[in-house]
Design brief:
single chain, alpha+beta, 8 helices, four-stranded antiparallel beta sheet
């Protein structure tokens, strides 16, 4: 085949016979390696997965880790040609994977916190009356919807794909939403608490959270309360689980 190639497509400039032979040998070696890769390492087939259109898949040996999804080491899996890892039909699932269970639990806690912490009294963990004195009912409703909806969507679809590899869009949704949440938490609480004083924010926080439980010392007029510290730790843990799981 290499010889035919060089006869059909001769070089544009004259070269020595030895150079032509070396080029043909290199080309032949590349073809041989490609042939071995295709016949021994990969097998292409079509498979119908519930919820997906019929897709061409590439079967890859178990030594190659998946790009997306947390799968047990002995699982059979496939990488679609669009880059997503999906479970084969009738193949093993991820149900019971500790990291996946942890991810769902962390999301559930944060979604519940975001929906109820300004509305339902939780003892000394929040002060609903003080929050409503600081903000109007309309503003609280808008803030709750805006800050809670993206994470609720992530939780719903994480539960839907529980036991299966997550689609790429869900992986990106989780990474972006929780990274933005964590960045906002740092800006709203920890930067003014540790580094840069913000008197207006400190006054607002004292009005809203001054009667809630806290254990850290006051600094720059701010004391992060226990409920928000738990939320921040859960957000950081979510990002850690996403990173460790390889999502």
């Amino acid at each position: 085949l290499a010889s035919v190639f060089f006869r059909v497509h001769p070089p544009t400039r004259s070269i020595s016979t030895a150079t032509a032979v070396r080029r043909a040998a290199r080309f032949q070696c590349i073809l041989r390696c490609f042939s071995i890769l295709m016949t021994e390492g990969l097998q292409v087939w079509s498979v119908a997965v519930p919820g997906f259109r019929k897709t061409r898949f590439v079967r890859i040996s178990q030594e190659i880790p998946p790009r997306h999804g947390v799968l047990p080491e002995d699982a059979e899996w496939a990488i679609a040609l669009d880059g997503n890892v999906r479970k084969r039909k009738n193949g093993p699932s991820m149900i019971g994977t500790p990291l996946e269970i942890t991810l769902i639990a962390l999301q559930t806690f944060q979604v519940a916190f975001l929906w109820i912490h300004d509305w339902i009294p939780l003892g000394r963990l929040n002060d609903v009356a003080a929050v409503r004195r600081a903000d109007s009912w309309q503003r609280l409703t808008i803030v709750t919807l805006v800050q809670s909806t993206p994470f609720t969507v992530g939780l719903i679809f994480s539960a839907k794909y529980f036991g299966n590899a997550y689609p790429h869009w869900l992986v990106m949704w989780l990474w972006i939403s929780y990274a933005l949440l964590f960045f906002g938490q740092l800006q709203a609480w920890w930067v003014p608490y540790l580094f840069k004083a913000d008197p207006e924010r400190a006054l607002r926080y004292r009005q809203m959270f001054g009667n809630t439980h806290s254990f850290l010392p006051e600094r720059n007029g701010i004391v992060p309360n226990t409920a928000h510290i738990l939320l921040h730790l859960a957000t950081a843990a979510t990002l850690l689980v996403l990173f460790v799981s390889g999502l």
